[in-house]
Specification:
By secondary structure, the chain is of the alpha+beta class. The protein has one domain: Clam (outer membrane lipoprotein receptor (LolB), chain A), CATH 2.50.20. Helix content is 19%, strand content 46%. The protein is globular. The N and C termini lie far apart (97 Å).
Length: 259
């Protein structure tokens, strides 16, 4: 019995040492290997996600499109209306105003920050060194009962109110499957400035040759988040470039002309 206990302790120490011996690059490499391989990730030219957002018990259909050239948009179907948000064509960023239902361009600052995010497609870790990003393994942390590796990702600074701010996120990779299950980032502006946002990922499923999370939760750290459930993820979709262009406002037709 004493021999068994000694062997168990030795195994535990060995296993713990292996976890602690992991480097950030080894974790990232294993992540890509487990989710389809770097070569298959690099073949991705676009991603289109069809999902439902749970808003106060109501399921709202949305479509999120992201392309390698930087084009992206979120389309919300709400009460019979199609509302585009975060539409970017590589140069201009715009959204539909929920009240007026008219397209409005974002500030130059927001547009410039969006241009920086183009390099994150399809995953910010894929070519992080080429993009000038850095990573650091900060150790282990338990997230919702799951042991994880905590990796700090530092990207190029963003500009907030005319000042450059650090662009840092903390990714939590579970120690069994080496996939991210949570991301924490400090909110830089708005009502919740200074607080930590939290995104959680689960239900990884295979799409083509790549594994993606089909269940997401987004919100503030340590608070209930908003659930997003993927219905379908399509790789390399065909999307008309006109969908990303800022719509020219049509002249209003007078009542006299209508008659």
């Amino acid at each position: 019995m004493k021999t068994f206990k000694l062997l168990f302790i030795a195994f535990t120490i060995c296993f713990t040492s292996q976890i602690n011996a992991q480097t950030a690059d080894e974790i990232i490499d294993t992540y890509f290997e487990n989710t389809g391989g770097v070569e298959n990730w690099q073949k991705i030219e676009g991603i289109k996600m069809s999902a439902k957002v749970n808003q106060g018990g109501m399921e709202i259909p949305i479509e999120i499109t992201q392309l390698k050239n930087g084009n992206q948009m979120t389309v919300i179907n709400f009460q019979g209306k199609v509302i585009k948000q975060g539409v970017f064509n590589g140069e201009s960023l715009w959204s539909t105003n929920f009240m007026t239902q008219k397209a409005e361009k974002s500030s130059q600052e927001a547009t410039d920050n969006m241009k920086l995010a183009i390099n994150d497609f399809p995953d910010p870790f894929l070519n992080y060194k080429d993009n000038g990003y850095t990573v650091e393994l900060l150790g282990n942390e338990t997230i919702d009962g799951t042991e994880t590796f905590k990796i700090k990702l530092v990207k190029k600074p963003v500009t907030i109110d005319g000042k450059q701010e650090e662009n840092v996120s903390y990714y939590f990779f579970d120690t069994e499957n080496f996939v991210p299950i949570a991301v924490h980032s400090e909110i830089k502006s708005g009502q919740f400035k200074g607080q930590m946002s939290e995104s959680k990922f689960s239900d990884y499923q295979e799409v083509g040759d790549i594994y993606f999370p089909f269940s997401l939760t987004q919100g503030l750290k340590d608070q209930p988040g908003q659930g997003i459930t993927m219905d379908k993820i399509e790789l390399n979709p065909t999307v008309d470039a006109k969908e990303f262009e800022f719509p020219e406002e049509q002249p209003e037709t007078s009542q006299e002309n209508k008659n």
